[in-house]
Write a structure and sequence with these properties.
With 253 residues, the protein is mainly α. The chain is 73% helix and 0% strand. The protein has eight helices and no strands. It has helices at residues 2-34, 39-89, 103-149, 155-169, 187-201, 205-215, 224-229, 246-251. Helix 5 (187-201) packs across helix 6 (205-215). The chain is rod-shaped, with a radius of gyration of 48 Å. The termini are far apart.
Length: 253
């Protein structure tokens, strides 16, 4: 019912305007006919009068709409200026809501803060433990490397070998050939050393194959697939043998 009422409020004014324009056009037509004008001329002036009336009405309606909007905006701007002046003159009121806080919510918030601090502390402790374990694990393998390689490489190559092991343990790749030269060691010995690295650092054979190829000059011409397949070949032979437990091996030295 409200919808129909609103529609009727919009239709009735438009209909009254249309009827008024139509009445004016009809009066002009009959006036021309009474003055001995032909029917075609009377009909032409009827249409022209009707069109002129509606054009004038639209211009008139739009003009008053703009005038109304102008004065409405002017009144609003003055009202806003007046309200802002009142707000400036009013004293600021500070509300201390510390007494209105719910103590239960405060306790819960403090628990949440405490829990977040505990979680962050645990993360930091875990990270410290992880770094400590990593360094200890790396140091053990570096000690093993010095023991078995010191008779077979010079000091400079031994340092390059240790640096390359650090890169491998961090999960990074060797980009440029290191070309460590060994003496009195076979390819099988180097394969065994690669498998010991895989076992100690808990990595895949596919990761150690390119490392061996880039680090040792004796393996630079081998295919990666060939290196991967031969890591544990004849594990009980050679100068460097397969070792299942590097820490235990060091303890028994």
């Amino acid at each position: 019912m409200n919808f129909n009422f609103k529609r009727s409020n919009l239709i009735l004014p438009k209909l009254s305007v249309f009827l008024l324009g139509l009445a004016i056009a009809i009066i002009i037509r009959f006036a021309l006919l009474n003055n001995n004008s032909d029917a075609g001329t009377a009909n032409l002036f009827f249409v022209l009068a009707l069109a002129a009336y509606f054009i004038f009405y639209l211009l008139y309606d739009e003009f008053f709409k703009q005038v109304f909007i102008f004065f409405e905006n002017l009144i609003k701007s003055k009202k806003n200026i007046y309200n802002s002046e009142i707000d400036k003159n009013e004293p600021e009121v500070f509300i201390d809501d510390s007494d209105t806080l719910n103590p239960i919510l405060t306790i819960e918030n403090s628990k949440e803060i405490s829990n977040s601090i505990d979680i962050e502390a645990r993360r930091e402790n875990w990270e410290k433990e992880r770094i400590t374990l990593f360094n200890a694990n790396l140091e053990k393998f570096q000690n093993y490397t010095r023991i078995i390689f010191s008779p077979h490489v010079d000091d400079h190559d031994l340092q390059k070998l240790e640096e390359s092991i650090l890169i491998y343990s961090n999960g990074d790749n060797i980009i440029d050939p290191v070309s460590v030269k060994t003496h009195n060691l076979t390819k099988m010995d180097l394969f065994h050393f690669g498998w010991n690295m895989v076992n100690h650092f808990k990595k895949s054979k596919q990761e150690v194959a390119p490392w061996l190829k880039f680090v040792f000059s004796d393996l630079k011409d081998l295919e990666l697939s060939s290196i991967t397949k031969k890591l544990k070949v004849e594990s009980d032979k050679g100068t460097i043998k397969i070792i299942e437990d590097i820490p235990k091996y060091l303890e028994n030295m």
